[in-house]
Amino acid sequence: MDRNKPIKREIMSVRETVEAKLAEVVAKHSLMPFPNSIDDDDELDIFGLDSLAFMNLLMAIEKEVGFIPRAILEGDLYPETFGELVSAYDTQGNK
């Protein structure tokens, strides 16, 4: 391994990160197959995740982006759609 070469890491957008982590959690905690594509209007409850699985999702996303949105932590927001979940991270991450 050449130490002078920079390590290339793919930087994922918040949306890509949330989608990737959602796919991982669905594969682990649900019998539902993860779709090939997901839209902002797709409801999260179609994946059959219970509250523990949803917390696992939030913690997995946190490992990548460094935080869980305050509105979700404080109970002011419980995202019902994929778009709402992505927006919660985009909104707080851009402050």
Fold and architecture overview:
- This protein has 95 residues and is mostly helical.
- It has a single domain (20-93), classed as Non-ribosomal Peptide Synthetase Peptidyl Carrier Protein, Chain A.
- Helices cover 49% and strands 0% of the residues.
- The chain is built from 4 helices and no strands.
- The chain has helices at 14-29, 51-65, 70-73, 82-93.
- Helix 1 (14-29) runs antiparallel to helix 2 and helix 1 packs across helix 4 (82-93).
- The longest helix is centred in the first third of the chain and has 16 residues, at 14-29.
- The protein is globular, with a radius of gyration of 15 Å.
- The N and C termini lie far apart (39 Å).
Which fold name fills CATH's third level, the topology? Answer: Non-ribosomal Peptide Synthetase Peptidyl Carrier Protein, Chain A
Write the CATH homologous superfamily.
ACP-like
Main beta sheet: strand number and arrangement?
Answer: none
End-to-end separation in angstroms reads 39 Å
Low-pLDDT parts are none
How much strand content do the residues show? under 5%
Overall shape: it is: globular
Average pLDDT confidence is 89
Number of strands: 0
